[in-house]
Each structure stands twice: as structure tokens, then as C-alpha cells.
Amino acid sequence: MKIVIQRVLRASVTSNSEVVGSIGKGMSVLVGICQEDTREDMDYVIRKILGVRLWSNEDETKRWCRNVREIEGGVLLISQFTLMHVMKGNKPDFHHAMNPDKALEMFNELRDKLSATYVADRVATGKFQNYMNIEQVMDGPVTLVLDSKNKE
């Protein structure tokens, strides 16, 4: 499972002219699910989303010391199969991505586990397998790329 975490002041996802998910201060998380991904990959990703220290303390004297829980921030999960690409010349190939039915099941399980582990009303999502427009105001900018298969 690959994720891209971006620290945001606010973010929202629109699909078919309808806002389907939005958060204030927190993180926007793009989620790519690979054919070989398991619940262990999902658990690793959840631990990282909730544990990664992206924010300073309140008086800004110590950087990179607080996680999304400590700032009571939001998490916007957005399914992004294109993270599983390999390049074939100049054309991306997505054959490593999990098939849509299984990926939807895993994405929903990820959302549900994250909501149960954190605070349900602070977790929002895009709309799986739909064309989406994402608006966000990045904070920093801060962007991290994590891969459950390569934990370095």
C-alpha cells in the first residue's frame, strides 16, 4: 500500500458537482492499493497516518513533535490507484493496482478501522472509482510518501 500524506489547512473532494468529503486542518492522504496488499499493510498505514509528527507545538518552539491526534485534525482519505503505476516508456501502466472490487473492500476497511481507531467524524473520504476534483490548501508544504512494502 502506498500513501501520500500532505499537511493541509483545509481540503475537500468534489465528485459530480457534490462535495463528498472535507476537512479543516489535518492531512490529505492519497491511497494506492496493490494486488498483494494485506491487512498488515493496512495496519502499518493506519499507524503511520495517526502517528506521524508533522506539526509544531503550540508556541512553535519545537517542530515536528505533534501528530494529527494531538492537534485534533482531520484525515481526508482519497483512493488513488495511479500511485501503483509503473512506466512503460512514456505511458503509465497500472497492472500492480488491486482490482476495483477488492480495492473498494480494502479501502472501506481502511476507512472504518481508521475511524474506529481515531474519531469517526474527523475522517472523510473521496468517492471511490469516481472522477474527483480535489481542492486543498497545503500547509508548509509538507508531503510524505510511504510504502508499506518498503518501510525505510
TrEMBL record:
Reactions it catalyzes: glycyl-tRNA(Ala) + H2O = tRNA(Ala) + glycine + H(+); a D-aminoacyl-tRNA + H2O = a tRNA + a D-alpha-amino acid + H(+)
Record family assignment: Belongs to the DTD family.
Protein name stated in the entry: D-aminoacyl-tRNA deacylase
Transmembrane segments: none
Keyword Cytoplasm: yes
Keywords (A to Z) from UniProt: Cytoplasm, Hydrolase, RNA-binding, tRNA-binding
Main location (coarse class): cytoplasm
Compartments where located: Cytoplasm
Keyword 4Fe-4S annotated: no
Enzyme class: hydrolase
EC number: 3.1.1.96
Lineage: Eukaryota, Discoba, Euglenozoa, Kinetoplastea, Metakinetoplastina
Gene Ontology CC, one term: cytoplasm
Alphabetized GO MF terms: D-tyrosyl-tRNA(Tyr) deacylase activity; Gly-tRNA(Ala) deacylase activity; tRNA binding
